[in-house]
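Following the same procedure, the fold was encoded as tokens, giving this record:
***
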Amino acid sequence: MPSVPSGTRYYAIGDIHGRLDLYEALIAAIEGEIAAAPGIEHRIIVLGDLVDRGPDSAGVVERTRVWQQSRNVRVLAGNHEEMFLAAFEKPEALRHFLKHGGRETVLSYGFSSRQLWDLTLEEIFERLPQVVPQDVRDYIASFETMIRAGDYVFVHAGVDPTRPLGEQKRSDLLWIRDRFLSHEGPLEKVVVHGHTIFDHVMDCGNRIGIDTGAFRSGVLTALVLEGDQRRILQARSGDGEPLAVFHGDRPH
């Protein structure tokens, strides 16, 4: 069975996409588990796509920065972080970003709906650096692309199955889909990834997909790895139900 290093427990958190409410609930659950197991070294990996689509991307980014001050939290870059940073480079990249969930992100940083409606693309482009501080952009630009732990590797989207882990392209780690998802053979390590939405955690043996579409499903998933054991932890909301945390057994 694949395992993580002895004495460690890993929490891998799927695509948050601006759902600060679910993220806060999941953090509280993780902190509760950490408090109950002081003898274990806890490591947390956020699998990218913190921003876009959901209502509070700015809050998710800031909450992550704060969490890193007290915990071993590492963050992977997702394709939506890449689009966000590209939006500061040229208006056409901004147009693409706004069409793919970026509208909610810039609203969370202080643009009003009226401004987005009234201003030209070029005017939004000029104002964007004033709304999103340079230190926030530098922080997002510092996100990692790959983290290894024992028999596992953590990436945002997946890996090119034809290349060794040490020779992966950044574009594949952030964007790959079909060539990776359709690959049924063994990989160098078990790949834990987000990026592609599934109704439930997808444990395919060679990979584990944990993006449960938080921004639209109301379900944010963390995969918990300890020794050769796997379980899931989920924050859930929706249909008028109060926010709740679900402790699951082995993923499907």
